[in-house]
Amino acid sequence: MCLGIPGEVVEVLTEHQDLAKVDVNGVRRTINIGLLQDEGVRVGDWVLIHVGFALSKIDEEEARSALEFLETLGKAYQDELDALRDSHID
Questions:
Q1: Every domain of the chain and the residues it spans
Q2: Which end of the chain has fewer CB atoms at under 10 Å, N or C?
Q3: How much is the pTM?
Q4: Whether the predicted pLDDT of 81 surpasses 90
Q5: Is there a contact between 48 and 3 (Cβ–Cβ < 8 Å)?
């Protein structure tokens, strides 16, 4: 199962404006934010992530609600976190 998971932007990489570091439940990874270039992604924003790409900006309330729901999925959500933890964008 592939899920879109919320992550909070903790850094926009200055040397690559289309990349940002996000935090998803304590897992920090670099993702591509190029699809949202017209939305001005900034530190503190929440984004919906799928296969290493930010697909949309969401508000914090929606992110928290989604995270609570995803946690109820158990193994499927844990598998997504593991995949995120093991992924790398250089």
A1: 5-86
A2: C
A3: 0.79
A4: no
A5: no
Q: What is the largest CA-CA distance in the chain?
A: 38
Q: Is the dihedral of CA 55, 56, 59, 61 positive or negative?
A: negative
How large is the C-alpha radius of gyration of the chain? 12
CA–CA separation, 36 vs 7, rounded Å? Answer: 14
Q: Where residue 1 falls among pLDDT bands split at 50, 70, 90? A: very low
Judge contact between 73 and 80, C-beta under 8 A.
no
The per-residue pLDDT for range 37-78, each reduced to its tens digit, is: 999 899 999 999 988 899 999 999 999 888 888 778 777 777
Spatial separation of the C-alpha atoms in residues 83 and 90, rounded to whole Å: 16
DSSP 43: T
Residues making up the chain, counted from first to last:
90
- The shares of helix, strand and coil residues in the chain, as percent rounded to the nearest 5, are 35, 35, 30
